Structures are given as C-alpha cells and as structure tokens.
Amino acid sequence: MFDFNKKNDWKDVGDGIFRKILSYNSKMMMVRVRFAKGAIGTVHEHIHTQSTFVISGKFEFNIGNEKKVIEAGDTCLMPSNVLHGCKCLEEGELLDVFTPLREDFL
C-alpha cells in the first residue's frame, strides 16, 4: 500500500536514462524515469496504455503521427499499441503510469 522513495534504487537502462520502479500491482505501475539532455527514448510500442507527467525538463514526444514539445507540468497519453518515443531537450524527469503493469520491468 505504501512505497518509500529511499528504499528503491535507480536502474541504469543505458544511454543517459535511469528508471526507478515505484508502486505497482497487476493492474497498474508507476515509474520515475530520469533523462540526461539529449537522451533518446527509442520509438517503440507495447500493449500497455501509458500516461506520462513531466516532473522537470523539456521533451520532444512522438506519439503516432504527432510530435509535440512538452515540459514540466505537462502530460501526454500513449494508447495501447501506438508507436511512441521521446528526445530529452533539457535534462529532466518523467513519471510514467502503465496499465496493466510492465512485467518486463520487474
């Protein structure tokens, strides 16, 4: 029911991107993702619906055929099985929520 930040470690997923898994159950997962400036979230798709909140920084997101720059306080939604990715324009951090949980992250 509770998840404390200090007990979770950052995982280096390569190329200037770090991930920290937060609370989750079988239906939902929350993940913090830290990006160095210039880091690329490679274009991909998955069965999960994903909502992203920009905690800090600035990112150029591609979702389907749309490309937008979003920054701290903005959100975006990636529907299931839609190609998406991002480029970090200013060092920053995202909060991703997936439904159902990303078993591949565990």
Describe the overall structure.
The chain is an all-beta fold and 106 residues long. The protein has no helices and 8 strands. It has strands at residues 11-14, 17-24, 29-35, 40-44, 49-63, 66-71, 75-78, 84-99. Strands 1, 2, 3, 4, 5, 6, 7 and 8 form an 8-stranded antiparallel beta sheet that branches. The two termini are 18 Å apart.
Number of helical elements? 0
* Largest sheet: number of strands, sense, barrel closure: 8 strands, antiparallel
Pattern of helices and strands: EEEEEEEE
Categorize the overall geometry: globular
Average pLDDT works out at 96
- Structural class, from helix and strand content? mainly beta
Distance between the termini: 18 Å
Rg over alpha carbons: 13 Å
The helix fraction, in percent, is under 10%
Uncertain segments: none
Total E-strand runs: 8
Task: Explain the layout of strands and helices.
Elements: E1 11-14, E2 17-24, E3 29-35, E4 40-44, E5 49-63, E6 66-71, E7 75-78, E8 84-99
Antiparallel strand pairs: 1-2, 2-3, 3-8, 4-8, 5-6, 5-7, 5-8
InterPro entries: Bacilysin_H2HPP_isomerase (IPR052535), Cupin_2 (IPR013096), KdgF (IPR025499), RmlC-like_jellyroll (IPR014710), RmlC_Cupin_sf (IPR011051)
Protein name: Cupin domain-containing protein
Organism: Olivibacter jilunii
Task: Supply the key terms.
106 residues; mainly beta; globular
Brief characterization of the structure:
It is built from no helices and eight strands.
